[in-house]
Amino acid sequence: MQNTKKLRSVTKLLVFSLGVAAGSCANPGEKGSTDQRPVATSPTSITPSQADAVVAAGGLTLSIQEAAKYTQYKVYVVGEDDRFSLRPLAGQDGVYELIPTLSGRHDLIVLANLAGKTDAASSSHGIRLSGIEIPSDKTLALQNVSLSPTLDLKGKILLQPAGAALAEVSVVGTSFKVSVDASGNYTLPKVPIGNHEIKVTCTGYQSGNLAQAPYSPGSLVPNLTLFADTLTLDDGLNYFGATLAKDTAVRVTLGVKAPDGYTSMRYGTSSDLSLGNWENLRTSIELNLKEQERAVFIQFSRDGRQPSSIFSKLMP
């Protein structure tokens, strides 16, 4: 009889592999949209060979590597309000369950501090788990969840035309946000490595966006320019600066507007963009032009596939 019960129990378990990647914020909680595509793995990502998902009965559990060295665990579901927490599972060291339960495709953020560390900046660790498919009638068990030191993301926001208003920078789908200083500089502190979408808003200006991209130690956040509400941006490239001096090398800023549905771009001063690298979409670019260069070209794609026609802009 005991062997029969064991056999029935075993047949209820299905084992499959799940690849997830890392990423995002500090104190998420605000609703918002986020790109939930599977993301590129990083050194602290859960890769298919590291993560095992075990089907049992209801919800989500996470097994944290070296869990004993962390304290003050927090968990957030990107785009949801701040109502979630991690509860230790009795008798299973380092295993936590997400409460309350939810289902569907989500990005999760796990944060914790190193035990015994008094410096909040150096003790902060975390990870963003992207594109987690949580079933509605089974428990998804994620193994080998590794936390890493968080990052300070630094960037600069410019206004065209210049103004005194201060922009606000936020991580999409979260309440994690900061205001720029008088020079337009900002720092988003204690951000876990991974994929983040950054949005910038400012009164009197059109919002700016840095499409979801991977951030890790050493990553640079591109500068972003916001354009006045009174300016109209057409699909492709837009230039609102002064007439350029002839035969002079210059640095220009152009507004970028992609047709709906496109997520990446490549651009340059040659109409042949076939060798250019695809970059994550953003709403402005800065480009150095040589003395005789006055035309800029851009092309959009959906994740490096289905490229658009090429748009061009001739500088005045």
Topology:
Blueprint: H1 2-11, E1 15-17, E2 52-54, E3 59-64, E4 70-77, E5 85-88, E6 95-99, E7 104-114, H2 120-123, E8 124-134, E9 139-145, E10 148-149, E11 151-160, E12 168-171, E13 177-179, E14 185-191, E15 194-201, E16 208-215, E17 224-227, E18 236-238, E19 250-257, E20 264-268, E21 279-280, E22 284-289, E23 295-301, E24 311-314
Parallel strand pairs: 3-9, 11-17
Antiparallel strand pairs: 1-2, 3-6, 4-7, 5-6, 7-8, 8-10, 11-14, 12-13, 12-15, 15-16, 18-19, 19-22, 20-21, 20-23, 23-24
Note down, in words, how this protein is organized.
By secondary structure, this protein is mostly beta strands. It is elongated and about 75 Å long. The strands form seven sheets. A four-stranded mixed beta sheet has the order 5-6-3-9, with no helix packed on it. Strands 4-7-8-10 form a four-stranded antiparallel beta sheet. Mean pLDDT is 84; it is low at 1-27 and 29-57. It has two helices and 24 strands. The chain folds into two domains: 2-148, no CATH class; 236-314, Immunoglobulin-like (Sandwich).
